[in-house]
Write a structure and sequence with these properties.
InterPro entries: Ran_GTPase-activating, RCC1/BLIP-II, Reg_chr_condens
Pfam family, one: RCC1
Radius of gyration: 32 Å
GO cellular component, one term: cytoplasm
Number of helices: 1
Distance between the termini: 38 Å
Structural class: mainly beta
GO molecular function, one term: guanyl-nucleotide exchange factor activity
Largest sheet: 5 strands, antiparallel
Protein name: BNR repeat domain protein
Strand content: over 45%
Length: 881
């Protein structure tokens, strides 16, 4: 559990960022919103335990704003009269500013405290917050009233905000762990170098001081002042030396001296973490040289350039030296405990007393290393990051890992820090042609260590967003589509953008890399419609042509083959008279301008219609790579596909009773296991079957198909744009909206179970919001059903969702199932469209009569990036730009 910050010996700031401010008239369509500002850069970061901090700058690369998140030091007052208190934490899910100014240059984190350096006109000053019960802040430990027996646990030793420590003005770098702090101060030849001082709890000699306990002077019985003192080489001899790299853990410290790049360690040595011979003392009370006999390190040709101390092991980097010139990367050496493979040695769990005779992954040079509790992460000279040891690899499958690459795009990393169950790293990202430093975190999230407001461990590094107010017009979107783990949207310039998971090329951008931000699908414009489901995307152009891409093993792209495509590919026959597309899991359908309906892809459940027979148990699963017509005269724009079903509205002239009236019926076909289509047939239906109207006066006007159920809107007027909502099919996870689900079903009675779970097509349930008066029907504008979640927009523009909600698809800020409509968290009345995917949802909002809309997304799994911004996961709707 070390603080694990790596001091880069050769970091030299060679320039400053010049910013030009341009003025101009404010567009009436513009609005001030919060979003990540690409001009922000990260100049320092730290992680310890379940806490992380970072310093961001907007131009001056020497100092910036300090923010922290995760577990914050806090206090619980037990007795107001005596001041008796206990230490605790509070969780902060978003970065919290530690001050209002932007003068911070460095930050470090201990178990119950945070310290930083401010660059002021008076010099470089030390500030700390949190608990000072062991003197770890460098402030006087205070008694409360006459309680001399327990000075630590009282309210006067807790500092809730960053407080100036002492009057020194020459602090350079800070290092903390457990309940102590160390810092480099004074003049040094290089940036961040100087003499070393330590203070706080001297557990196992970690401070290199001549006391076994707290470092303080006992001036009198009521006022104990902590000394911030130089480390010692003996009982009374301070080390007067310049240090270039320091790292401290809960019980040992290591550092590199500038004069000869020699490595020194002190503190606890029970697991041989000091790099000393195995017969050395268990505790090294003072600064002790690591001499490294009989290993592949030659001090005449190599020099130590970086070191990191963990709880029970240590790692350091040695670089080639020619005269006074030292390389910026080199060999990685680790020693100490190897219980979980944290020193990179396979085949043993025993501690190693000296750096292994072969460096870690000796074929590669390393630039920096960071060590935590039983795990190690390092960055090589290619900018790639690797981790090994306990839970060091992000999938968390077991407790021991070999050297494993960090997930996602493993490139351009410049530094990394290791916490208890999470890691954070800074990488260089090109934004608008300019390289910027951005902070990403990954790993466990139970204490909000990754920020972002989500509740899940993240497999992929998650950008720590720095929201600032900037001028942007978000009202640029026309329509959208949600696939299984990706989404696409049309802009008002008819350009098409996609984001999310991309293993099969479902984003259409020519590669298979996932995208956490929106990616433009080709440079072309002229797109008019888009639909997605599972791993398939199709879109229409202004000339009526249809283009599809992604997975194609069942011919669902309609290209005449089963080859997958990662760019838009025109469907076979080059037909250019399509007006609507509808995509299912492995099949697709489209309507032509002559009202004919065509389907292609998998016919496993009869979803292509009567042109292809339903297979029996001995027949190979059929599919069609060419389009097959579904007989009928179908209404323009009214075709709907789901996982294994297709529905469409057909226009039928009723000449016998009223030749002037058009009666429109909803037909469905495909899987029928849960009586979605026909109660007299047990399984699949490949013939379009009419869905009875829920009431005699109502007619179906639209539909949406979920995993094992169907929802549809009905109105007395076939031209209406809103109607009452009805759902039927399998209600196992509450998708029917009737307040029941598997937990509320009486499983002791099979009849009760069947009646509660399955809502047949001929008795659909009328879905209303909880506040709808008895006897009335909620009127809805649109419904989107997908997998085990449903969202719908009321006629007042509010958005309501229900179902499983395993990944926050309901958008109300939790992951709790809802068997009835629940309003999303923002309670906006401006929703105009919603689309639900497998684990996420997206929607469009209008404002003040605008004809173009803003884009919002929520839910999602962090490693699939469906949300469309760099937060990766949101439990509430978030604006996407």
């Amino acid at each position: 559990m070390s603080e694990n910050r790596v001091v880069d010996y050769f970091i030299i700031i060679i320039g400053a960022l010049l910013l030009a401010a341009c003025g101009g008239a404010k567009s009436e369509n513009s609005t001030t919103i919060a979003r990540p500002d690409p001009t922000i850069q990260i100049i320092a970061s730290a992680s310890y335990g379940n806490t992380s901090c970072a310093i961001k700058t907007f131009g001056d690369l020497s100092k910036g704003n300090l923010s922290c998140w995760g577990q914050f030091p806090d206090i619980v007052i037990i007795d107001e009269k005596t001041g008796l208190a206990e230490r605790t934490f509070r969780n902060e899910s978003s970065p919290v500013a530690m001050s209002t100014d932007a003068n911070w240059t460095d930050v470090t984190i201990g178990q119950y405290h945070i310290c930083g350096i401010k660059s002021l006109s008076s010099g470089e000053r030390l500030y700390c917050m949190g608990w000072n019960d062991h003197g770890q802040l460098g402030l006087a430990r205070l008694y409360y009233l006459d309680d001399f027996n327990n000075p630590e646990r009282n309210t006067r030793n807790f500092y809730p905000t960053m407080t100036q420590v002492g009057s020194s003005t020459d602090w350079k770098k800070l290092y903390a762990a457990g309940e102590h702090t160390c810092g480099i101060f004074g003049a040094g030849d290089l940036i961040g170098t100087g003499e070393l001082k330590c203070w706080g709890l001297n557990n196992d000699g970690v401070l290199a001081q001549n006391t076994e306990n707290n470092v303080y002077d006992d001036l009198d019985s009521q006022n104990q002042t902590n000394l911030i003192r130089r480390v010692l080489s003996s009982d009374s001899t301070p080390v007067i030396a310049t240090w270039i790299s320091v790292s401290t853990s809960d019980n040992h410290t290591c550092a590199i001296q500038q004069a000869d790049n020699s490595l020194w360690c002190w503190g606890l040595n029970t697991d041989l973490q000091l790099g000393l011979p195995s017969n050395s003392a268990i505790i090294q009370k003072y600064v002790t040289a690591v001499t490294l006999p009989n290993v592949g390190f030659d001090p005449t040709t190599e020099a130590w350039i970086g070191v990191s101390a963990g709880l029970e092991h240590t790692c350091a980097i040695s670089a080639a030296k020619t005269g006074t010139t030292i390389s910026t990367s080199g060999k990685l050496w680790c020693w100490g405990s190897n219980q979980f493979g944290e020193i990179g040695v396979s085949g043993t769990t025993s501690s190693i007393s000296l750096p292994n005779s072969s460096p870690v992954n000796g074929s590669r040079n390393w630039k920096s290393v960071s060590v935590g509790q039983s795990k190690t992460c390092a960055i090589n000279d290619l900018g790639e990051a690797f981790c090994f040891g306990y839970n060091a690899s992000v999938p968390f499958i077991n407790d021991r890992y070999p050297i494993t690459a960090v997930a996602g795009r493993n490139e351009n990393w410049t530094s990394i820090t290791v916490g208890l169950g999470h890691e954070c790293g800074v990488k260089t990202v090109a934004i608008s042609g300019v390289d910027k430093s951005q902070l990403y975190c990954w790993g466990q999230q139970q204490f909000s260590q990754l920020a972002g407001g989500f509740n899940y461990n993240s497999y992929i590094p998650n950008l720590i967003s720095n929201d600032e107010n900037i001028l942007v017009d978000p009202y640029v979107w026309k329509s959208l589509a949600a696939g299984g783990h990706h989404s696409c949207a049309l802009k008002n310039d008819n350009s098409l953008w996609c984001w999310g998971k991309n293993f099969w090329g479902q984003l259409g951008v020519g590669n298979e890399f996932p995208a956490s931000t929106l990616k433009k699908v080709t440079s072309e414009i002229g797109w008019t419609d888009v639909d997605s489901y599972f791993k398939t995307t199709c879109a229409l152009k202004t000339d009526g042509s249809m283009w599809c891409w992604s997975q194609n093993h069942k011919g669902q792209l309609g290209t005449g083959s089963i080859l997958f495509e990662n760019i838009p590919t025109i469907t076979n026959n080059n037909i250019s008279d399509w007006n609507k597309i509808a995509i299912g899991q492995y099949h697709s359908c489209g309507l032509k301008n002559n009202n004919s309906l065509w389907c292609w892809g998998s016919a496993t459940f009869g979803q292509l219609g009567p042109a292809m027979a339903i297979p029996d148990t001995t027949t190979a699963i059929p599919y069609s790579t060419v389009k097959l017509q579904v007989p009928g005269d179908w209404k323009t724009g009214k075709v709907f596909s789901g996982k294994y079903n297709t529905c469409a509205i057909e226009k039928i002239a009723n000449n016998t009773t009223n030749p002037d009236k058009t009666v429109e019926d909803l037909y469905c076909w495909g899987r029928n296991k849960y009586n979605e289509i026909n109660i007299s047939v047990n399984l699949e239906v490949n013939t379009p079957s009419v869905i009875p109207k829920p009431e005699n006066t109502l007619q179906w006007i639209s539909a949406s198909i979920g995993k094992r159920y169907i929802c549809a809107l009905a109105n007395t007027d076939i031209t209406a744009t809103q109607g009452s909502l009805w759902c039927w099919g399998d209600n196992y996870l509450g998708v029917i909206g009737n307040k029941t689900h598997y937990d509320s079903i009486d499983f002791t009675s099979n009849a009760s179970y069947e009646a509660s779970r399955f809502i047949p097509f001929n008795t659909p349930f009328n879905v209303n919001t909880p506040n709808t008066a008895a006897g009335e029907k909620t009127m809805w504008r649109q419904v989107s059903a997908h997998d085990e979640n449903v969202c719908a927009i009321k006629n007042d523009g509010t958005l309501w969702c229900w179902g499983e909600n395993a990944f926050g698809e309901i958008g109300r800020g939790d992951v709790v199932l809802s068997a009835e409509p629940a309003q999303e968290a923002t309670k906006s009345p401006n929703w105009v469209e919603v689309q639900v995917g497998d684990n996420h949802a997206c929607g469009l909002q209008s404002q003040n009569g605008k004809t173009d809309f803003s884009l919002w997304c929520w839910g999602g799994r962090s490693f699939e990036r469906q949300i469309g911004d760099l937060r990766l996961v949101n439990l509430e709707p978030k604006l996407i730009l």
